[in-house]
Amino acid sequence: MGGDLTGRFWWREKIFRDFGHSYLVELVYEERALQKIQIFRNPTWGYFLVLDGIVQFTERDEFIYHETITYLPCSLLPHPPETVLIIGGGDGGVLRELQKIQGLKRVDQYEIDLLVFELCQKYFFKIAGNYEDNRVNFIIKDGLLGLKESPSEFYDLLIIDCTDPVGPAQSLYTKTFYEEAQRVLKPKGVFIQQASLPAYFPHVLTNAYRNIIEVFPYVKVARAFVPCYGEEIAFVLASKEPKDWTRAITKYFGKYYHPELNSYYFSLPANWYNYIK
Ligand code: SAM
């Protein structure tokens, strides 16, 4: 299908069988390939990307997610990251934030779906970082396969900006994946991965946490409220050496992120502790 607008209609992101989030939209693009990709436009949220029925980000609030998944782990490194691996993130939002950091030398990125990348370059070019940058190696490949081919202890930072484990991202939440992640991370490095919305899908956080804690000695859960998700999203961070998680040792300032937020991100509601027992 092409980019014709089809008139306004109510589109629903199904959360449960009896509950969803409704948007009055115009369809901008739709194609069922590796994943079902939809791009909609809504007057409140702007353009937004949907993969397999799940809202990934909107123009209005994507900066909250992208700054969090980038700056929160960066703030825990002893120096700005020089070598970074992104898995997923085909929209380019994480790359955009990384490119604001002084001293960045190399970014490798494995994104499984070329169509996501191409469509985001077309419809979300204001959001995306610069893929012409010769420090960036963007490869269309499954993240686990890419990780297996990566050198040991090479990356300061691993950012797993993937979809929920329902489609091609399932392999990115397995123990094998975390073992490979552990192998390629430098001793002082930090790993971060999104782990869905615990209020609705707590099993994603539970499974990710259980697998990660078997592999990494230090694991911490963070939360952030991104309005279009309707609930707080979880992130799992991990490291090989202890970290003073709530203290930003390197300071970054974004539109949303600032160093004092670290203590907010890591203070969890009581019921979240049940998900990571
Ligand atoms: N902000 C998002 C959210 O809602 O959690 C994540 C957005 S980003 C668009 C997720 C990307 O992960 C997608 O482009 C998807 O193609 C990619 N992805 C999924 N499985 C993957 C895999 N096995 N290897 C590499 N990339 C993968």
Please write out the topology.
Layout: E1 8-16, E2 19-32, E3 36-42, E4 46-51, E5 54-58, H1 62-74, E6 83-88, H2 93-98, E7 106-111, H3 114-123, E8 136-140, H4 143-148, E9 155-161, H5 175-184, E10 185-194, H6 202-213, E11 218-225, E12 232-239, H7 262-265, H8 270-275
Parallel strand pairs: 6-7, 6-9, 7-8, 9-10
Antiparallel strand pairs: 1-2, 2-3, 3-4, 4-5, 10-12, 11-12
The structure holds S-adenosylmethionine (SAM).
Shape: globular
Gyration radius, rounded:
18 Å
* CATH architectural label of the largest domain: 3-Layer(aba) Sandwich
Q: Within the CATH hierarchy, at the fold level, what is the topology of the largest domain?
A: Rossmann fold
| Discrete helix count | 8
Question: In terms of structural class, how would the helical and strand content be classed?
Answer: alpha/beta
Biggest sheet layout: 7 strands, mixed
How would you name the CATH homologous superfamily of the largest domain?
Vaccinia Virus protein VP39
- Number of DSSP strands? 12
Q: Average pLDDT across residues?
A: 96
Q: How many domains comprise the coordinates?
A: 2
